[in-house]
Amino acid sequence: MSRSFSRWLLRAASLLLCLLFWQFAANGHWDLGLVTFANVPTPLAVVQAALGLGDSGNLARHLGSSLGRVFAGYGAALSIGVALGLAIGRSKWAEDLLLPPLEVLRPIPAVAWIPLAILMFPSSELSMVFITFTGALFPILLNTVHGVEGVDRRLIASAKSLGAGRRAILLEVILPGAAPSIITGLAIGMGTSWFCLVTAEMIAGQYGIGYYTWASYTVQNYADIVVGMLLIGVLGMGSSLLIKRLGGLFTPWHRPRGKA
């Protein structure tokens, strides 16, 4: 049995154990003291709710709304976060000018931005995209700064000694050296953008996975709540994995250290 197959088998067994625990706990209405499963739907009820969502014809509209908002906000965060990160990482003047206000804004949670975003933007759609943007911006920005500052200064000095200009140093030394850290920030930013989007959709949305989850809660459709949660998890995991895979294609020189 190959090592790769053994790892996939272990992962499948882990998921199966979680499903079995969920089934027994929900079906038996377990009460564990701090946690109770009395009102938690069984996996079969969740599957039936998911099939019902698919048959209703609303699944594509919910998915399309959420994906459009996520990738619009994420795309803006990618462009601005990487650009600001390169500037802050390379210039002490830019660091002193830009980093203090960004550090003040960074701890503010997404839900706190929602009232101001609704006031700032003419439509709820733009306000939700902005919330997604704020969630993705800071992981991308900080990882870019970390990656740029971590580039070996001897490589930059060697490039200068060979006659490389600022543009060549940026494109051929700084960006390749910082790329692994930037890709990590992009993957983290994708996950946080989903988290922030769902928060925004619960308050300001009309369609979307977050709106569907919150609407299911208000009418006490517990199985539909879990369907929404699982959709968010799968979409977030899948999009983050996609970013990592694309990052691996663009950085063939970088290979993470193997695990024992």
From TrEMBL:
Keywords: Cell membrane, Membrane, Transmembrane, Transmembrane helix, Transport. PROSITE patterns: ABC_TM1. GO terms for biological process: alkanesulfonate transmembrane transport. The keyword Protein transport does not apply. The chain crosses the membrane at residues 71-89, 127-148, 169-188, 222-243. It is a multi-pass membrane protein. GO terms for cellular component: plasma membrane. Residues 63-243 form the ABC transmembrane type-1 domain. It is found in: Cell membrane. Its main location: membrane. Belongs to the binding-protein-dependent transport system permease family. PANTHER family: ABC TRANSPORTER PERMEASE PROTEIN MJ0413-RELATED, ALKANE SULFONATE ABC TRANSPORTER-RELATED, MEMBRANE SUBUNIT. This is ABC transporter permease.
